[in-house]
TrEMBL record:
Residue ranges crossing the lipid bilayer per the database entry: 26-47
Name used for this protein in its record: General secretion pathway protein C
GO BP, sorted A to Z: protein transport
Protein keywords: Cell inner membrane, Cell membrane, Membrane, Protein transport, Transmembrane, Transmembrane helix, Transport
Xref: InterPro entries: T2SS_GspC_N
Keyword Hydrolase: no
Gene3D superfamilies reported for this sequence: 2.30.30.830
Region entry Disordered, spans: 149-169
Localisation per UniProt entry: Cell inner membrane
Pfam families: T2SSC
Domain Type II secretion system protein GspC N-terminal residue range list: 88-152
Record's GO cellular component terms: plasma membrane
Length: 169
């Protein structure tokens, strides 16, 4: 009587009559694939951790180099320096050009006030006898003009209101 090798518990030990040694390959192949997947996963995460550069804030901008001084650049490129022509000193503008009369409140007597802008600044009110910038004194106020006296013996000057549109005063 011949014994069948496929009968009994020997099939569970990996001995099969039909496939020979094939059942022993599947567990080894599955274990190899699992170890390959574990190694690839470990390599991926190692590259993720070690391959990162330090974070750079988005708001960081590159600094632009300073522009060279034009005279120095011209000298380097071979330009010869030009001597500025000596001009005659220009007389300063008249003192009256600094002041602009904006409004007048004339009093019948020696009183009154004027609204005067100095050097394009907002106008300020001044009474007769008040000192403006530069020691200029408001001497008199008339219906459409004022008289200012500069310091020292300088000639007094007069400021007038601009003509109203339509010729009315």
């Amino acid at each position: 009587m011949a014994t069948d090798r496929s009968f009994g518990h020997s099939v569970f030990l990996g001995e099969s009559a039909a496939s020979g040694a094939a059942p022993r390959r599947w567990p080894a192949l599955a274990a190899g694939l699992l170890w390959l997947a574990a190694g690839l996963s470990l390599g991926y995460w190692a590259l993720q951790v070690l391959g990162r550069s330090p974070l750079t804030p988005v708001s960081t901008t590159a600094q632009l180099p300073e522009a060279p001084e034009p005279a120095a650049l011209a000298r380097v490129l071979g330009a010869t320096p030009q001597v500025a022509a000596v001009t005659a000193p220009v007389a300063p503008p008249p003192l009256s050009s600094r002041y602009q009369l904006v409004g007048v409140v004339a009093d019948g007597g020696d009183g009154g006030a004027a609204l005067i802008a100095i050097d394009g600044q907002p106008p300020k009110p001044y009474r007769v006898g008040a000192t403006l910038e530069g020691d200029v004194v408001l001497r008199t106020v008339q219906r459409r003009s004022v008289r200012l006296a500069p310091p020292g013996n300088a000639q007094p000057f007069e400021l007038s209101l601009p003509e109203a549109p339509g010729g009315r005063s």
